[in-house]
Amino acid sequence: MSCNCKQGNPDIMTADGDSPEAALPAAATRNACKLCSPLGAAMVFKGIRGCLPFLHGSQGCATYIRRYMISHFREPVDIASSSFSEDDAIFGGEKNFTAGVENVIRQYQPEMIGVGTTCLSETIGDNMLGMIKKYQDSHAGKGPPLVHVSTPSYTGTHSDGYYAAIKAVVQHFAKPLRVTMPRLVNVLPAMMSCEDLRYLREVCAMYELDATILPDYSTTLEGGSWEMYHRISPGGVTINDIEEMGAATATLEIGHTQANNKDSAGHWMEKERGVRLDSVGWPIGIRLSDEFFAAMSLIANRPMPDQIALDRGRLVDAYIDAHKYVAGKKVAIYGEPDLVIGLASFLSEIGMRPVICATGAKVKGWRELVTAEIQGGCNDVETIHGADHAKISERARELKPDLLVGSSKGYPLARELKIPLMRIGFPIHDRFGGQRILSVGYRGALELFDMVVNALMESKQENSETGYSYL
Amino acid sequence: MDSATTPDAIHVLDDRTDQVWTKGSGKAFKCDTKSTAGSVTQRACAFCGSRVVLYPIADALHIVHGPIGCAVYNWDIRGALSSGSQLHRNSFSTDLAEKEVVFGGEQKLEKSLLELIEFYKPKAAFVYSTCIVGLIGDDVERICKSVSRKSGIDVIPVDSPGFKGTKKSGYQAACEAAFRLVGTGDTSDIKPYSINLLGEFNIAGEAWMIKEYFERIGIQVVATITGDGRVDDLRRCHGASLNLVQCSGSMTHLSKLLKQHYDIPSERVSFFGFEDTARAIYTAAEHFGDPELMERAQELVRTEIAKYAPQLKQYKKQLKGKKAALYVGGAFKAFSLVLALRALGMKTVLAGTQTGSAEDYEQLKEICDPGTVIVDDSNPLELAKFVLEKDVDLFIGGVKERPIAFKMGVAFCDHNHERKIPLAGFEGMLHFADEVARSACSPVWQFAPRRAQAKAFLDSASQSDFATESTTTEGGKA
């Protein structure tokens, strides 16, 4: 019963367990560093109160995504599907779409249905908008709103699906309003943790702002234990609040990639609804958080609250206390584009060297985006977009980082190189609490900083001969 | 509108009423049908069905021909162990982009295959078709033939677009693909007392435990299909005298093919629980009609049960009288679990499967107690309804069922293919009891709002204006 299994990273072993000799394969994707766009859309829909996500295609798409999200968030994630059969793939999926929507309404009594497409329905050319309109006309406009977003897996990644769904929701609901409520702000976050979303709301409150955060899955994907069963997990931003986003004094859109994206939800709100846009990066570390809080002060017309200033002071002090333990250490970062940029900024400002900054997405100007935020020179920084984990592993074998930072999917590499993996992002399937990792603001940076320092210290301690308990 | 609901307010969908059955009701029961649109089925698609069945063949190259989603969600998440090659734990995909959707993906597939085969030196390759492959007109069969010729290994297409039938159709496509290898290997050293274990996936090393039982009594295991699987084992599995078929849903088709082409008889067995494990070993021994073999089998069962039965007693004491719900993939596992739970003094009040056949359900109905609810191809809301109505203490299922149980303060035992703990065989029964007891007897449930004690605390606390999220029902607009 013993296991004589071949030890090592499966991506660099032949079927017999030997080291491969042939040229590295280039055509296929080996161990992808991205997920598909419907997953991102489902995340957004999960962050709207009373909304049930619906994927128009084969049911496997919904089931796979449900399981992936459940394993990370450890919460119910119900996503409906039109469950295509062979006939539907040939003759179109309208019948199943209509039946599916009706069954969802009967079972879930949703306030909204978020409809994402899949490769299948996009390829056969199902006209979603037409189908939705026909359904609503035949029901005299009654029933919950159906919001459509186009998310074929063959275009973009989960990040793209996420941002596309935010835009679709805003376009669908945000009314043109003449009034401006000076204390109302729209926050459009990147694909962050539940704790990040909660902290963003807290920060807004400290600046005496009412925030409409879209999406807000902080409770739907991390709620309490229930006394009664809920058809749809409680929490989320209300449709009513989304409708009134046009009255906000500003939109704060988070994520470097969105700042450059003239088609983003925030840009649309500015152009079509006259709400001023403030674009900031994912605020990780001091410099990006400084920019973020400066934007908040501008929007709120308030100075930085004392409590936040105190947080900043503690963070600077912590950086100084521990800087020698991280100085010059090499780090490989991978994940969603906006997360990687934020992390690269943070890790370089504490004195580490981000030798690999990789994302599975194809991002125009990736190198410029990343290196613009990195301190201490960029000659030793490899920026890879369209990366898969096999590619990241290949570069890491040569560049020998001291630390990996990213999702659970980097574990085989961390194990191979015998270096620590600091887990952040999505998915985190081999640890608890991924949904509770705080990364934004000075407080988030402090948490991440302790994690980084301690991971490096633990690794040094474990590998030392003496094993001091006083370091 | 309020999202909080009582179980009686959840109605089974009209299209599904025949797939929900209560023992003693005398009603008709329907199964083996495609999922109702919008029902939020727990089933995946045909592609998933074929991918999971062939996944454990460790020295083969598995490549998913399609966009990235289909490949990435099943990368190295299953607990199927290999004693050697780890190649199967990679996720290879042609990762089709818009360009290929328009102009076809054949070239990319061919190039991917040739490079990967050259690099990883697999013994064979499986190419899984996803939803859009047929639609964009790729001739996968032709590419496979061409690569086979160039690389010198078998390159086998798996016809598994997600929409093509149910998850079970995917099982069938996998069996067809695996069968292409059968009959091409040397069988000269196979002994007369020899079997194949079909539908055993070596989750957490279960196949190794089971294989050892047979070897101890003098029965050769030619191939475990597909757990700790090897291409060469498949090539020569037609030399075995008997097929023992465990996961009936996934492997029935291959056992039929082996019967049809090589006249190998098959028996349905299960290795969950003392009772079924013993019966499986006796079934094989009986087949060969050798009294000495049977004696050795009986001796093995006696020894193993003597080793583990005493340790089970403490668990039985803890678990006696508790009520269980189970929702699993195939029905054969479901009845083993009913028996195993009974052996622990527990009662099954809700049982369901994703892909059970009519024959399976007949057997399940028979062994269940009156009043037990049986569901086919169920969904979260239905499961929640019956968990509450039957007031279950323990739920046995997979990842997607777990939060339903936990949110309602119900204990949970993972019994899917992602688990990392062996639950099969005699030893596995001990792990199973331990897994169940760890959850069912945990003190944490006292804090779950649905549990009585917690309720009392919250009631008294709310009198002093102390409210928690759980006492207020959110979810609707005021």
CATH superfamily of the largest domain in chain A: Nitrogenase molybdenum iron protein domain
CATH architecture annotation name of the largest domain in chain B: 3-Layer(aba) Sandwich
Main sheet overview of chain A = 5 strands, parallel
Query: Which spans of chain A of ≥5 residues are poorly predicted at pLDDT below 50?
Result: none
CATH evolutionary superfamily of the largest domain in chain B? Nitrogenase molybdenum iron protein domain
Percentage of β-strand residues of chain B: 5-15%
What is the total domain count of chain B?
A: 3
Number of helices of chain B: 18
CATH-derived architecture of the largest domain in chain A: 3-Layer(aba) Sandwich
Give the % helix of chain B.
Answer: 40-55%
Principal-axis shape of chain B equals globular
The CATH topology of the largest domain in chain B is what? Answer: Rossmann fold
In terms of structural class, how would the helical and strand content of chain B be classed?
alpha/beta
The neighbouring-strand order within the major sheet of chain A is 13-12-11-14-15
Q: Name the strands of the widest sheet of chain B in spatial order.
A: 2-13-12-11-14-15
Proportion of residues in extended strands of chain A: 5-15%
Rounded to an integer in angstroms, the radius of gyration calculated over CA atoms of chain A is 23 Å
CATH structural fold name of the largest domain in chain A: Rossmann fold
